[in-house]
Amino acid sequence: MDKRxxxxxxxxxxxxxxxIDLMKEKNFEDISVSEITIRAGxxxxxxxxxxxxxxxxLIGSLKDLMSRFTEEINxxxxxxxxxxxxxxxxxxxxxxASIFNLLHQAGMDSQIQESLDQFILSCSHFPSLDRRRTYPxxxxxxxxxxxxxxxxxxxxxxxxxxxxNIFCQYMDGLL
Length: 175
Hints:
With 175 residues, the protein is mainly α. It folds into 2 domains: 3-51, Orthogonal Bundle (Arc Repressor Mutant, subunit A); 55-171. The protein is built from 9 helices and no strands. It has helices at residues 3-23, 33-40, 44-50, 54-74, 82-95, 97-105, 109-122, 134-153, 160-171. It is elongated. The termini are far apart.
C-alpha cells in the first residue's frame, strides 16, 4: 500500500476512534466536529476529506460491523444447522457489543434494522427468507434486532448457544 493511502487510513481510523471515545463520555448530539478533530489529532480539512458528517462516521462503522457478520457467517459450510449459524451470529454480536450499543445510543436503530434486513435477505444460510418472502424475512430480522437490544441491555448473561436456542425455538416456523 502506498504511503498516502496508508496515511489516509490512519487519519480515518483516528477519526472513528475519536468519535467512539467521545461517545463514551457524552451524547452523540453533543459532540462537535472540533472535538472529534482535536481528539483524533487531525485537521478539519482531513476530517471533511473523509467524512461529510458525524453520521457518516457511524454509517461507516455500521457497514464495517455488518461486514464482520457477513464474513463470519459466509465462512460456515452451507448445510450447517440454523442453530449453529445463529450461535456464530451471537458470538460476533457479543464481540462487537460496544459498537452496536454506541450506534443504538446514537439513534441509528433504523439504519441497524435496515442493515440486518439486508443481511438476512442476502444470507445463503436462510434460503426460505429470500427476496420472494420478504415478510417472514423482516419478521425474523426485527425479532433478531429486538433480541439483540434486550440481550445487550440485560448484560449478555446468556451465552451464545443459549441465545441461539431461545431465538431458534421461536423462529423455527419461519425457517
